[in-house]
User: Which sequence fits this backbone?
C-alpha cells in the first residue's frame, strides 16, 4: 500500500530534482551568458538564455518525461518490462512520415516544419492501423497488439530503407541525422501546446494508476477487479502512442529513456503505478535535460546526438543499479 | 436457498467449436461447489463466463437476476472475486500491494482509506501472510503466493469466490489448508465455486459436485451422488473404484482403463 506520506516524499523529491535541473541547465553552455545580464535585457545574453537554451531545456524536460511515461504505460499494457515507447510501431510511423517530408523536400506545412507535421501524421496513421487490426469486436488482446505493432514496424522500416536508398546525398544525410534523434530550440507557442498535451496525459495516467496496477498483473485479474478492460487497454495504447508520436515527430527517436527510467524507478519506489507514474515523468525529464546539456557542451562547438548520450550515460548507470540492487535483494 | 447464479441454456462458441453446449445450472448462496471434468470439458470457459470476463455467450447467465454482461465492472468487482490458475508477475509488487489490489473496486480515491487498510490486514491475517507484507511477491514460494492471492480475493469482500484450479501448484499440506479455508468461507455465507482436477479433495470439502463432459453437464449433485464408477468411466475414461473415506465422504482410486489390444502397426513401405 502507499501512504500519502510516502507518495508526497517520492513525488516531492523527484519534482524537486526536475525543477532544479530545469533551472540550472540553461545556465550551462559553450558560450558565456550571464543570468543577471540576460535578466537586464542585455544582448546577446538574453537571446542565448531565453531564445536558445531555455526552450531547448524545456523540450528536453517534456520529451524525457513523456517518453518515460509512455514506457510505463506500454510496460503495464503489455505486461512486459522490456516494452519501450517504440515497441508498438509508433516511432517507425513517425520516422516514415519525417523521411517522406525530407525526401520530397517539403519545408513547411501550415507554418510548422514539414518534418514535424508529416512525422506526426505518419505516427497517427500507424496508431489507427494498429488499433483497427488488433481490436476485434471491441476486445483487444495485448498479444495481437504486440504482433501487429512489430509487423507495422518492419513494414515502415523497409519503406524508410527504400526511400533512403533512392535519396540523394544531402537528403540521405538529413535522414540519417533525423534517425539519430536530436533536441532543438523551438518557439514557446509550440512548447506550450506540447506541455498542455503531455500534462493532460500525465494527470490521466495518474488517475488511472490503480487500474494500471491491475492491468500489469493480468487481463482477467483486472477485469474481475472493477476494470472495464477493453476501454482501459484502448486508452492506454492511445495515450502511450500519442505521447510518443508528439515527441518523436519533434525530436526523432531518442532511445533508452522509456525502457530504463521506469525500470530503475521500480527498484527505488517499487512497482505501484501511483508512485511510478509521477516519478518516472520527473526523472525521465531530468535525465534527458542532463544528457542534452552534455550533448551540446562535451564536444562544443559540435554536438553529439542526444540518443548517443542517453545510452552511453544511462547504460553503465543502469548496470550499476542492477548489480547493487541484486546484492541487496538476493544475498 | 437463494440462487446467486442462474444459467439457462448457456452456450459458448470459439471459432467453429462449440465449447459449452447449453448449460443450465443454479448456484446457491453459501454453497461450495467443485466443478470437475476432463481436459477440454469446458471448465475454464464456464469460469470465464461466471467471472464476467467472457461476454460473448448465448442463452442466459444471470447473476442475482441480472444478465452478467450487463453488470458494471466496478459493481461486479464488489460481488465476486476470481482467482486465476497461475498469477505470474513481471513487476516487483510486494505481497501487500497484491492484496491491496482487491480494494480497488471499493476505493473512491487514489489512496486507501483507514478502513481499506483494516480490511487488507484482516485478510492477510486470515491466510497467515502478514509476515510477508513487504516481500517481493515473486520471491515467495508457490504456497505462500497462493495464500497472498487468496488474501487479495478476501480483501475484495466478495459474495462469490471463483477459483480456477486453486491447488495445482501446492504441496499436500497447503492443498488441504486451502480447502479448509474455502469450506470455512462457504460456512460464512460466501458462494465458492472452484474448478479442480482433484476429485478426492473436492469430495471431502465441497457440498456439491458438477461434472462437465464435452461442454455439457454430465452429473450434478452431492459428492456421493456424482462420484460413481459408472460416471468416472464415462466422463473421465478411467477405471475407478469408489470407497468411503474415514470421514464418510466418497474416496476414489483410479487406474488406466485396459485398452483394447492394439493391432501391430506394420509400416507399409
Assistant:
Amino acid at each position: 500500500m502507499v501512504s500519502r506520506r510516502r507518495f508526497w516524499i517520492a513525488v516531492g523529491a523527484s519534482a524537486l530534482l526536475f525543477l532544479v535541473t530545469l533551472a540550472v541547465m540553461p545556465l550551462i553552455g559553450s558560450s558565456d551568458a550571464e543570468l543577471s545580464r540576460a535578466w537586464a535585457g542585455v544582448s546577446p545574453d538574453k537571446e542565448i538564455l531565453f531564445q536558445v537554451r531555455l526552450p531547448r531545456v524545456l523540450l528536453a524536460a517534456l520529451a524525457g518525461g513523456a517518453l518515460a511515461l509512455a514506457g510505463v504505460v506500454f510496460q503495464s499494457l503489455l505486461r512486459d518490462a522490456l516494452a519501450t515507447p517504440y515497441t508498438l510501431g509508433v516511432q517507425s510511423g513517425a520516422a516514415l512520415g519525417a523521411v517522406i517530408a525530407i525526401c520530397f523536400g517539403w519545408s513547411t506545412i501550415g507554418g510548422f516544419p514539414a518534418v514535424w507535421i508529416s512525422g506526426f501524421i505518419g505516427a497517427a496513421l500507424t496508431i489507427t492501423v494498429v488499433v483497427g487490426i488488433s481490436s476485434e469486436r471491441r476486445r483487444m488482446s495485448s498479444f495481437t497488439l504486440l504482433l501487429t505493432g512489430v509487423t507495422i514496424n518492419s513494414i515502415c522500416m523497409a519503406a524508410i530503407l527504400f526511400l533512403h536508398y533512392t535519396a540523394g546525398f544531402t537528403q540521405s544525410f538529413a535522414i540519417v541525422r533525423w534517425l539519430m534523434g536530436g533536441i532543438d530550440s523551438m518557439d514557446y507557442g509550440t512548447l506550450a501546446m506540447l506541455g498542455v498535451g503531455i500534462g493532460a496525459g500525465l494527470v490521466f495516467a495518474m488517475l488511472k494508476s490503480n487500474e494500471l496496477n491491475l492491468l500489469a498483473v493480468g487481463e482477467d485479474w483486472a477485469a474481475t477487479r472493477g476494470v472495464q478492460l477493453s476501454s482501459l487497454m484502448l486508452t492506454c495504447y492511445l495515450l502511450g502512442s500519442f505521447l510518443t508520436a508528439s515527441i518523436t515527430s519533434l525530436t526523432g527517436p531518442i532511445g533508452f529513456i522509456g525502457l530504463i527510467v521506469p525500470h530503475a524507478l521500480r527498484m527505488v519506489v517499487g512497482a505501484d503505478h501511483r508512485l511510478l507514474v509521477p516519478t518516472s515523468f520527473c526523472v525521465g525529464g531530468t535525465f534527458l535535460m542532463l544528457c542534452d546539456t552534455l550533448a551540446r557542451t562535451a564536444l562544443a562547438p559540435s554536438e553529439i546526438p542526444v540518443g548517443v548520450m542517453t545510452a552511453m550515460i544511462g547504460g553503465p548507470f543502469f548496470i550499476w543499479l542492477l548489480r547493487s540492487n541484486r546484492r541487496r535483494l538476493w544475498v | 436457498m437463494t440462487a446467486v447464479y442462474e444459467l439457462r441454456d448457456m452456450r459458448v462458441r470459439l471459432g467453429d467449436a462449440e465449447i459449452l453446449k447449453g448449460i443450465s445450472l443454479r448456484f446457491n448462496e453459501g454453497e461450495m461447489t467443485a466443478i470437475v471434468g476432463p481436459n477440454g470439458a469446458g471448465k475454464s470457459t464456464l469460469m470465464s463466463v461466471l467471472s464476467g470476463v467472457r461476454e460473448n455467450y448465448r442463452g442466459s447467465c444471470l447473476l442475482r437476476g441480472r444478465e452478467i454482461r450487463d453488470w458494471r465492472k466496478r459493481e461486479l468487482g464488489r460481488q465476486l472475486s476470481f482467482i486465476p490458475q497461475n498469477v505470474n508477475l513481471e513487476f516487483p509488487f510486494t505481497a501487500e500491494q497484491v492484496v491491496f489490489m482487491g480494494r480497488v473496486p471499493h476505493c473512491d480515491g487514489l489512496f486507501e482509506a483507514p478502513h481499506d487498510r483494516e480490511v487488507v490486514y484482516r485478510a492477510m491475517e486470515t491466510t497467515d501472510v502478514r509476515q510477508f507484507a513487504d516481500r517481493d511477491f515473486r520471491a515467495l514460494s508457490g504456497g505462500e503466493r497462493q495464500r497472498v492471492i487468496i488474501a487479495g480475493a478476501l480483501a475484495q469482500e466478495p459474495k462469490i469466490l471463483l477459483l480456477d484450479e486453486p491447488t495445482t501448484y501446492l504441496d499436500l499440506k497447503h492443498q488441504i489448508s486451502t480447502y479448509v479455508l474455502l469450506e470455512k468461507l462457504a460456512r460464512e455465507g460466501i458462494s465458492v465455486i472452484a474448478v479442480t482436477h482433484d476429485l478426492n479433495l473436492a469430495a471431502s470439502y465441497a457440498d456439491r459436485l458438477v461434472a462437465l463432459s464435452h461442454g455439457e453437464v454430465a452429473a450434478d449433485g452431492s459428492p456421493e451422488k456424482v462420484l460413481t464408477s459408472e460416471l468416472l468411466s464415462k466422463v473421465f475414461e478411467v477405471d475407478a473404484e469408489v470407497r468411503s473415506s474415514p470421514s464418510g465422504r466418497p474416496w476414489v482410486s483410479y487406474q488406466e482403463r485396459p485398452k483394447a489390444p492394439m493391432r501391430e502397426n506394420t509400416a507399409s513401405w
The first helix of chain B runs from residue 43 to 50. The mean pLDDT of chain B is 90.
